[in-house]
Inverse folding.
């Protein structure tokens, strides 16, 4: 079944295996007239690229995006935008020993059962390289939203049990931080923790937080295409993400209604809420406050420690995974979370009534 | 935009406002030849119905489902199955005073901004009564899965900070428990807590857990229709659900790879895992273990306590919500979670390759 | 597979078997604020109903539509609109003798092969009664279009080899004509032809023509959701329709480019075309002229004459079909063609850019 | 709105403008394990390529397809297959004088109205080069069908008023014929006609016929995804196609039921029909006979003759189109019709019940 297509009006299809000729995406439904060049996409691509941060794989990926269609004289045509990155640094041999076994924590076993056949090199389709297409599409979506004053910002808010201090968030700093943490003090402690974990040949988990600002009230569609439902599908489709929560999230189980409800008030700027326990979503529609959600990213499954597993012939074996692997996936997931969130918002808005955001369809 | 349609091959559309003439659903894509009668659906409907449990609204809903199409001589035809429940106990007048204000924690404000017009009676489309259609469709999905030895079971696993003891789970007991908790001891404590909360005119939150057993490995579609992504959209689309997590979920942030990975082994029954930290999903595909997820249900937003809010004319007002309301939504969400999970699984399986489950399309 | 769902943003699902409890539809994605009552839908329903015309079945169908949801205080809410007609005049016994054989020209054999089981009463799902849901949804779509000055009008343009004279078209008359022909003179001749055909226990075919006026240029989406591609799917999905053509249609094969091209000119009212050989569609987009297409409706397959066929046990048999059957299907297909065309246009326009029709999404 | 996506389970997205960097497609949902190489696709690509036939443009297109993903060790992985052809022979300057006017019979005016901006070089997105992606995807679909003994063959059956003799059809010859006509005698006459037309700087129209053999009964989905409805959308989405008809098609209007019905009989090979007036589709499902349809292809709109039109500033002008243009589009549409038909059939079959074609999902 087709499963690489996302979105109804702003449709994104990604393609590509880690060690095939190329990875990329096609974006269909982008309004005409948007300024779009590789340069405008590059900053997002660079935030995704490995080799630029500590604790991430040393693999050098140029990841220069090519725009193959949908753009003329620097502006979008309203037609499909195909974008791709060629896979140059493939080094398949590193992965040769993994061709016949099922790595714990990876999709190998499921793919083998599903398709009876898989590209074992570097994870194939389930590789993190698939997210290149998501980020390129997400960059387009963010440009559309920026035209309307809507921003999408994600960052690492926790590594292991080390959390950022929300009174100290500095998004500008976070863009440069090796862990994408917007709090230098927390990042220092997290880096120290990761050094210990890495020294043991092990890996760590983390949490990514995302804030969407400037969204008008009423975005989302009752009842199955609720804003939070669509964002959840989008973000949970990112590899290694194992959970998502909005506003108070799981903490809401321990609150009372009087604590969790956000009271409304009317002020100069229209109707607002005194608090934002809802995370900006009520009944599946945006409520005019910032949309805030968190996604947990599991520890990198590829570790150097010896693990027990099974090969494709059904033999119990021991496995030691060599090669380059991130100690922590979360920092590189940050820009993918932003991308999926931006794609989701654009898709919902392009299908919304004019009342929500007059003229979004005609830039 | 159309937002009340779920699923690609097994498509469910729900309709209906709380106080309109009827609520229901149409299920398209159900294989032909499945035994289906109102009697087979009724047990799910009764688990959803209010008035049968303590801590739930006293409103007496017969909720007798009518099957209008798609069934002939007690078997499905392969054509759309329309099912509905007429709204008989409407008592609109109870809600009259809410017509002109935005209740905190509810979708009122978003609907007004989105549509410029809403059915204020009992929440209209955002009412819990909308879930009647989901449960009827879910009952059909569960019957399909049962034919293939797949079960979907949900229950309340936490109320406030009171959790069930997972060594003591008794699903049979849980079906009768007033809070849908499968642990009588935990339920006793939770009931006491809810009595206190209710006495204060307040409400409480909880967590619902769901286990899917018997699913073969390989269900789910890379990369956007991953099993956990689809389940997340499905479950997050249920009103009052604010988060979802699989397996270790948010706890995975604090684990190391060596702790979170599940090692495979080959035994008599084929390839298995020593543990199930993944919650039965790896790389977006089922891994052959039980699929386990949890969803947090926020405290009922309708409380008796006085709350500050705004009316539709922009005046700051005080609001006291009268009428019948559940102190805790979670117990009634249990069967809706089961339903959405079952619908999702059937939709994915009907689109899967034969390899996954030979013959599922021809019962 | 789900096949009873039409449209992406304006989504219509029909349900129901000829002799089941009810037939109907759910319309999802209708903008909020549209005036909608059963009275506004009735004229379309009456045009579809049999028993009001000569040459159509005598079956008396009240076909009173019930609106179950999506409307409050006479206006649409933006939520799904469920509508149904109960099947009252079922007389199953008339059809009993057809339970076990495959009628020539009907879907019986395909349904039996596909589902292994079918509702043989009156055609079940493949009955003309399924179109009740289409017409109810089409009536909603036509009301939306009327708000924007767009009209959709169909009529019978040929019966056998008797064609209307296009210089003599009188749409008002056509609404009352027993054959839905807008040319009384042609209708007289056609009625005489049908009397002869009916006297022999045989049936006849015809052609329905549809004109969409007031559509701005640019409606349709390159490349697969072209205006004519979408209209073709919509109209070809009507039972008994075997072909469709736009503008010159099949005649274009015999024309030269210089004859078939429509030259543009700029006048007071903007850019226009001297001719309309294109039928209002160029490159899959509306070109500002009237959209004109024709659909051929095959002769009613149920005839009184003895036919050879096979029963479900594989025996060669002879079959004589009794009961009430239209001599000509075309007149009743007219309103269904209009409905499917209107649904298609609304679906495309709700997904279009604002440039096309500012504000269509917010009535 | 997204309009470049086709199919639900076997999903094809095309991208590319005539004079952009590349054109191509992504195919999602192809079963794993299918042998696929550029060599297997090339024969279809060559049938589409211009410059190899008389009466077609002299433009030399290498059109070498690159497979970027979804294939490993010569077999499909079950993941998206991205394929592209780089645009090398662009010669934009030929088209420079067309940048500011609306060519009669072309999509220029609609695109300008829809997007406010367009790639005027060679038709941009509405160019025939867009069909490269369709043909590459169609080649994949045909390979899947071939595994199951299903063939799809199209050919030119008429040019102007010159028709092939159906008793003389030679498909093998047709593959080499300059007009793709499977009847050398008719082709000779047609070529002579085209020479005359070309000499006058004019163009001609034609009809393409397609036959699908080996399809089991029951393919197609009631009621909107009928086999003929889906095929009609697919084929009508090809540029220049203005009509489609199945079996007797428009001729059915003049037949009686007793003439148009196909009687069934039971013989050694199961249930068959004495005739095939239905064109292999009854009630929207395949009936076990060959599926036969015809599509009319209008005369090439680009002609050398002087035409009146309007420029984008609203001035009435005279236009003479220079450059290379086919006198007749039909021969090159043949392989595109085959491709769209094959894609449609695979999409419907992958969503069908097992009963129809056991194991199609697992090659």
């Amino acid at each position: 079944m087709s499963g690489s297509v996302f979105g109804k009006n702003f449709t994104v299809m990604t393609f590509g295996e880690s060690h095939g000729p190329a990875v990329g995406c096609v974006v269909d439904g982008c309004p005409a007239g948007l300024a779009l060049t590789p340069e405008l996409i590059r900053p997002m691509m660079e935030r995704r690229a490995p080799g630029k941060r500590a604790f991430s794989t040393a693999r050098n990926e140029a990841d220069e995006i090519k725009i193959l269609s949908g753009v003329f004289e620097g502006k979008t045509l309203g037609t499909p935008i195909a974008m791709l990155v060629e896979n140059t640094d493939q080094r398949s041999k590193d992965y040769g020993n993994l061709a016949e076994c099922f790595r714990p924590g990876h999709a190998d076993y499921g793919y083998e059962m599903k398709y009876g056949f898989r590209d074992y090199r570097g994870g194939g389709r389930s590789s993190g390289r698939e997210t290149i297409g998501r980020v390129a599409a997400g960059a387009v979506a963010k440009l559309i939203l920026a035209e309307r004053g809507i921003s999408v910002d994600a960052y690492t808010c926790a590594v292991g049990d080390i959390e950022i201090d929300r009174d100290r968030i500095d998004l500008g700093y976070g863009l440069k931080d090796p862990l994408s943490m917007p709090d230098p003090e927390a990042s220092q402690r997290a880096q120290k923790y990761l050094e210990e974990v890495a020294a043991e040949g092990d890996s760590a988990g983390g949490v990514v937080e995302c804030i969407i600002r400037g969204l008008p009230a009423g975005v989302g569609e009752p009842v199955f295409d609720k804003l939070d439902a669509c964002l959840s599908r989008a973000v949970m489709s990112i590899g290694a993400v194992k959970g998502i929560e909005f506003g108070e999230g799981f903490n809401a189980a321990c609150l009372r209604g009087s604590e969790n409800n956000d009271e409304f008030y009317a002020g100069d700027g229209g109707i607002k809420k005194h608090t934002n326990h809802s995370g900006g979503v009520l009944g599946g529609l945006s409520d005019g406050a910032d949309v805030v959600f968190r996604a947990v990213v599991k520890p990198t499954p590829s570790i150097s420690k010896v693990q027990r597993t099974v090969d494709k012939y059904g033999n119990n074996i021991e496995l030691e995974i060599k090669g380059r692997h991130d100690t922590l996936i979360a920092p590189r997931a940050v820009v993918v979370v932003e991308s999926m969130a931006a794609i989701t918002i654009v898709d919902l808005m392009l299908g919304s009534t004019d009342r929500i955001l007059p003229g979004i369809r005609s830039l």
About this structure: Chain D touches chain A through 50 residues (CB under 8 Å).
